[in-house]
Design a protein that fits this description.
Shape: elongated
Radius of gyration: 31 Å
Strand content: 15-25%
Largest sheet: 6 strands, mixed
Helix content: 10-25%
Distance between the termini: 106 Å
Structural class: alpha+beta
Number of strands: 10
Order of helices and strands: HHEHHEEEEEEEEE
Strand order of the largest sheet: 6-3-4-5-8-7
Length: 264
């Protein structure tokens, strides 16, 4: 009787590595290596991305991401005794401070000013403005502005006409204009604490500085009643800076008859 067994060919295996040696299946290891490499790359990207988002909350996209996941500290309402210390500049010194700034340097400075405000000045000191200014105009804030509730007042320095300011009065729900053209505004070192959030340079070396009163007080109507203000809950960082049109800009008229402004 002849008995035969099925064979898988192991009897032909060559231990010397010849042509009959059994080949190992390395395809699984290859794809696992690719997967692990991709996961490591993705983890590294997420790490750097999160660092950039938290390091630059003033960027519109970063601000939206942080706001979406509730990672922004509420904007603080300081008092006259708790406002952060900072440098106070009158109009002439303000112009001298930014006169030589290039467009790129000014963009970096503006990012720093906004970042410091968003972080409640935990790492940087504010830049305050002081002096006497004459109101040019005022308008209520809208959903398209950086701060969506309150008023913004444009004023010009009585000391040097090349310096304008726009003061944001957030949360002021008054229906009538808080100030009118020709009114006088005095920014001091004891009550207003108006900190710079943005500096805009126009043609002929003129500047306009957007200001936020960090104590949300110090501004009153003619009858002496203080305007009610409060910190904004959220900022619209996609909005245009400055908030007001430059009164000194050349006014043009397009083909439709619509009046537009030409700003530098």
């Amino acid at each position: 009787m002849q008995i035969r067994f099925l064979s898988d060919g192991n009897e032909f295996r060559s231990y010397g590595g010849g042509s009959f040696s059994k080949k190992k299946d390395s395809g699984g290891i290859f794809w696992w290596t690719i997967l692990i490499t991709l996961l490591m790359g993705f983890a590294t990207f997420c790490w750097f991305f999160s660092i950039m988002v938290f390091a630059h909350p003033e960027k519109p996209f970063n601000y939206r991401v942080l706001a979406r996941f509730d990672k922004l500290d509420p904007l603080r309402k300081f008092t006259n005794y708790t406002v952060p210390q900072g440098k106070f500049l009158p109009a002439r010194d303000l112009l001298a401070e930014f006169y030589a700034f290039s467009r790129e340097q000014l963009a970096v400075k503006n990012d720093l000013l906004k970042r410091s405000y968003i972080r409640n000045y935990k790492q940087e000191q504010p830049l305050y403005v002081k002096g006497t200014f004459q109101v040019v105009n005022a308008r209520p804030l809208t959903a398209g502005d950086v701060i969506t509730e309150g008023w913004v007042v444009r004023a010009r320095s009585t000391d040097i006409e090349d310096v304008d300011i726009e003061i944001v009065l957030p949360g002021n729900k008054g229906e009538s204009d808080p100030y009118h053209a020709g009114d006088t505004l005095v920014l001091d070192q004891k009550n207003t604490f108006a900190a710079a959030l943005h500096v805009q340079k126009f043609d002929q070396e003129r500047v306009c500085v957007t200001l936020m009163p960090l104590a949300y007080q110090g501004f009153a109507a003619k009858d002496g009643k203080q305007f009610e203000m409060k910190p904004p809950l959220k900022l619209n960082m996609d909005a245009y800076w400055p908030l007001t049109r430059d009164p000194g800009a050349a006014v043009l008229e397009d083909s439709t008859g619509k009046v537009v402004s030409k700003e530098g």
